[in-house]
Design brief:
single chain, alpha+beta, Zincin-like, 3 strands, about 10% strand, Metallopeptidase family protein
């Protein structure tokens, strides 16, 4: 009986076509390289600022129309060192500088909890300076 030519469309795939060179199956579409974290340091900074600002606006009416902005670094140091915020009363805005707030922490305090405390503290102190009050006066029963 004569031999029929093989039809590749019905034949099983060759080992090399389905397996990698090491004999294992390739990755499926479901398995992908690890994705970057959904929430990074900058995202956490923004969320922490937003929560503190929301609290302050609800507590002090003087801050309702004030814009809180985030900058990376101040343009230059001032006489007391590197500023963590800048007040612009005429423009009704407060600019908080992310890098000095997060990076100039005391040694041994560079963890998530201390970074959050430093961020909230900077927001409270900048807002207090803007309205001319002490940061400790910001409380739900004050105002």
């Amino acid at each position: 009986m004569p031999r029929r030519p093989s039809d590749r469309s019905t034949a099983a795939p060759r080992r090399g076509a389905r397996h990698g060179r090491h004999g294992r199956l390739g990755r499926s579409e479901v398995v992908r390289p690890p994705l970057p974290p959904l929430e990074g340091r900058v995202d956490r900074f923004d969320v922490t600022i937003g929560a503190a600002v929301e609290f302050l606006r609800g507590t002090w009416p003087e801050l309702q129309e004030v814009r809180f902005e985030i900058g990376a670094l101040p343009l230059s140091p001032d006489t007391t060192g590197i500023p963590r915020w800048q007040i612009d009363r005429e423009g009704r805005r407060i600019v908080l500088f992310r890098v000095p707030i997060e990076r100039l922490l005391p040694p041994g305090h560079d963890d998530a909890m201390h970074r959050r405390i430093a961020i909230e503290s900077a927001v409270f102190r900048a807002a207090a300076e803007y309205v001319g009050k002490d940061p400790w006066e910001f409380g739900a029963d004050q105002g």
